Amino acid sequence: MREYKIAAIGGDGIGPEVIAAGLQVLEALAAKDGGFRLQVEHFPWSSPYYLKHGHYIPEGGLEKLKGFDAIFFGAVGSQEVPDHVSLWGLRLPIAQGFDQYANVRPARVLPGVKSPLVNGQGIDWVIIRENSEGEYAGNGGRTHRGLPIEVGTETAVFTRAGVERIHRFAFELAGKRPARHLTLVTKSNAQRFGMVMWDEIFFEVARDYPDIRTDRELVDAVTTRMVLKPQTLDVIVATNLHADILSDLAAALSGSLGIAPTANLNPERRFPSMFEPIHGSAFDITGRGIANPIATFWTASMMLEHLGEPAAAARLLAAIEKVTGSGVLSPDLGGKATTAEVTLAVCAAL
Ligand code: IPM
Ligand code: MG
Fold first, then answer.
1. For the domain that residue 144 is a member of, what is the CATH number?
2. Is the pLDDT of residue 34 over 90?
3. What is the pTM of this model?
4. Residues with C-beta less than 6 Å from any ligand 1 atom
5. Are residues 200 and 156 in the same domain?
6. pLDDT tens digits along 146-186
7. Measuring CA to CA, which residue among 109, 131, 71 is closest to residue 276?
8. Phi (first) and psi of residue 262, to 5 degrees
């Protein structure tokens, strides 16, 4: 029996609700499959925990996480804690501390889900987000605080090693898809140092992948292409901030933020990788039992893929598609189903 150690961090808002639903589906899947077992440990790290203890991750917490095969993460963000404090207190220390530099964000219109685009069926993308540096490097400061001459700086950091490894990762992934097409997203017309280097390294790496078609698009222009000609895109590689924005657009165009999954990968597997729905805490619906668990289920499927259980991953994705296709949809998708109802339907479909 193959056994995997999973660290579950529900976090804030609807995070604990969707993670509980995700674990329920994973348990059903493991029971059905019979070949693997999950050993789950829960971590209470969240904003309420921070308000009580003064930290999100306790002393030695990251060290403890290192012993797990994967991290299953809900959301972080609370109305009681400034967003930059919660983000830098929980999610970024894990993603950056564990060198999860490749953030993978697929987008597709699932059966039964309506895209706001007339040509939404053309959406079948994977956005690769650089996840360790760039605009999220945390490099900056404030000087002359509170005075009229106050200065704030926020320096994007691009390293040759960091840029090369994400481009290489994107080429490898693009090579596994039928379209074998990779679009470089940039803003090297206005930003002439880091972004120009970003482009140069992309085309250096491209020489090692002659069978992959490439093109280059400015980040503002690619938004229009996503909306008007979605079928012309396949895999997209973009910086930390650019891909953050594009992936929300991709989720909305595929029907709802409630379905979009993500994997924060340390491809070399020196550290555990982290899997999370991209939607965040969603205070407006927290505790109402109507959060869409589909993003978390899709995320769980990506986690299984990474753990080396591709058959179970595919089976879960097929069950998700069967359920959305049959019209069991949560309110964000125009339906009436609760989190529990969608979860039970997916368990039954398995
Ligand atoms: C995401 C989220 C986060 C980000 C937020 C919660 C800070 O929007 O994963 O896309 O910007 O990275
Ligand atoms: Mg985002």
1. 3.40.718.10
2. no
3. 0.96
4. 77, 87, 244, 278, 280
5. yes
6. 999 999 999 999 999 999 999 999 999 999 999 999 999 99
7. 71
8. -155, 150
